[in-house]
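[job 4417] fold queue: 2 targets
>>> target A
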Amino acid sequence: MTVNAGPVAAERAYAHTKAQIISGGLAGGQLVSEAKIGAELGISRTPVHEAFLRLDAEQLIELVSRKGAIIRPMTPSEATDVLAMRQGIESASAAQTFAAGGPDAEIVGRIEENLRQQEAAVGAGDVAAFVDADDDFHALLIEASRNPLARQFYEQLRGRQQRLRTMYLRIDPGNLAASYADHRTLADCFVGGDRDGFTAALVAHLERYQGAI
């Protein structure tokens, strides 16, 4: 039965469609209709339309009159811009953390738990699980700075980052292990207070993703 539950249904449509875009289930250039998403979720077109407006504002889709929307492909220039912003935010956050004496014990514990999750995902060849853990890992590095603006900027990039990660990690299964090794190096430098090592490791890590597009 198709229903319209207002904001709740719109949020479901938004999360569902965005997840498909990030995972590659909806590929760049693909046309998707409000009716299709509504049918998948058992909701009317109205909340789906509201979800599409949000995704259009985030530049993940382009609305097409009376047809639905086209999934925006991620271009090489967009990937470059996303990676540049990531480097800026993460470098600045790390510098702030180092200046304050390093991450606290609670953050360090969460980083170690996250790395265990990454290792398990690598062992299972689970790209989706690794993408989630990868995203959380970098979010923890930023959270350690206790800078709410840095966290806000990171959140604004999050969807694009996850989309780029998924594309890169699906190119070659070996990329999972390589990314995990990078994260181990980053964590060791971050916790150990090695500023230069962290900066070099971050640059090398982000350069891997440039070739994903």
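>>> target B
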Amino acid sequence: MKINWGTGIVIAFALFMTFILYFVFEVQSNSKYDNDLVVEEYYKHDSHFQEEMARIQNAHDLQQKPSIKYTEDGVKIAFPTTLESDKIKGNILLYRPSNKKFDFNTQISLTNSTLLIPKNKLVKGRWDVNMEWQYDGKKYLTKEVIYVN
């Protein structure tokens, strides 16, 4: 049986579609390829965007800003010494973009204007640090990206 060029094109298209559909079904059915939303309640989170921007601006307007750095001991968060440590309240979310199972919150409890998150709580890779805090009734939001080695 001879195959002409029209039949060859149809066979090529059919093979290509089968190839693409195989990968679509593989990604959708395998839990290894997790395709969840980044934030669980996306629209609820997005509705507070203007309030979040005001808190980021408050933190940006500070003369001395808190610093978030990765050291060999872990993540060190240092507040300016001009602020009274006992008046700083809030929490810190360490968010792992690649796997939400590693995300965790911690309350701000300072020792000598610093907070240390131990290295053993962190997995290697990228971490987004969102620090929501308030001082004298004013709310602040500090965001940083760190890389753990």
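[job 4417] complete. Note on B: The chain is about 30% helix and 30% strand.
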